Amino acid sequence: MSHLGIWRDMKRKYSVDALVDGLVSRNEGALARILTLMESSPRSRSAISQRISDYCGSAHVIGITGPPGAGKSTITAALTALLREQDRKVGIIAYDPSSPFSGGSVLGDRIRMRDHFLDDGVFIRSLSNRGVPGGISSSAKIAADLMDAFGLGSIIIETVGVGQTDLNVMRVADTVLVVLVPESGDSIQVMKSGLMEIGDVFAVNKSDRLGADRLVHALETSFKESEATIPSVVKTRADTNEGIHELLEILDQRFRTMGANGSLEIERRSSRVGYMYDAVAEIITGKIRDLVDVEDLRSDSKILNIIDGVQCGSNDPFDSAMKIVDLLLTENQLYK
Fold this sequence. Notes:
It is a single chain. The chain has helices at residues 3-13, 16-24, 28-40, 45-52, 72-85, 109-112, 139-150, 188-191, 195-198, 212-224, 244-261, 263-293, 301-312, 317-330, and strands at 60-65, 90-96, 122-128, 154-158, 175-180, 201-204, 232-235. By secondary structure, the protein is of the alpha/beta class. It folds into three domains: 1-55, no CATH class; 56-261, 3-Layer(aba) Sandwich (Rossmann fold), CATH 3.40.50; 294-335, no CATH class. The chain has a seven-stranded parallel beta sheet with strand order 3-2-4-1-5-6-7, sandwiched between helices. Helix 2 packs across helix 3, helix 3 runs antiparallel to helix 7 and helix 13 packs antiparallel against helix 14 (317-330). The longest helix is centred in the C-terminal third of the chain and has 31 residues, at 263-293.
């Protein structure tokens, strides 16, 4: 069934108000259904967001990012296990690359978090990044808010892991945890313009490898040279739980301190505005993608002539793309 079909079917069965009532009553089925509605129907997100706003704000949202292979999933699983030992409920939003065929996530939550999947105190959702640069899509904030309203006190967002451009998580998370490995040491200078600037806490994972101490020193030296607040750096081996207790304590202490001194609300206000701009860009990109993918586009004689020119080599592809966009803007197609 298409996304539109799923949305229409769910709209008939469940109103947003009914789903939210179930959500705040700790009905897990309502949480699952409203997350599906939010993903399959972007138009529903505004109504959902407004309806749950009074129930949000208590959870600590932790964004975990870093280069591929750093161990983000392993750290997520290790932190979740420790949180559950402390009888704390956890929500996990795991972002995966989009399938080029279906648009859905390539990997599944059962594969990533099989040790926690049957735990009633853990709610896991795998989402697709919809091909959006930045590691997560605009659904991330609403998904986190829904889990917050449901009563999950710790929410972990694991990004796709696209490296130094994986930055959108800072718009959603209260704390950004950047996971690196000893081999990342050679790229610290390059990363200064990306991940290094958004991280609140750094985990040097797989710290049994050669170069771990050198990377910790490089990070701490780099932070001291800047005028910003110095982030914490922790050595971890997530596969054996080494450093995980220390890491969680640092994350918790930062959240408590921010709540006490008022900086948490200040950062959340700023993040909401930044997230709005990200959503604007994603909505416009989605509209353009929909127009380009629609077969009816080829029925426009002006556009068809441009396409024919590109096929035979008489028209430059980039120049032709600009002409098509101009035509769509002129005919007001982008605003329908």
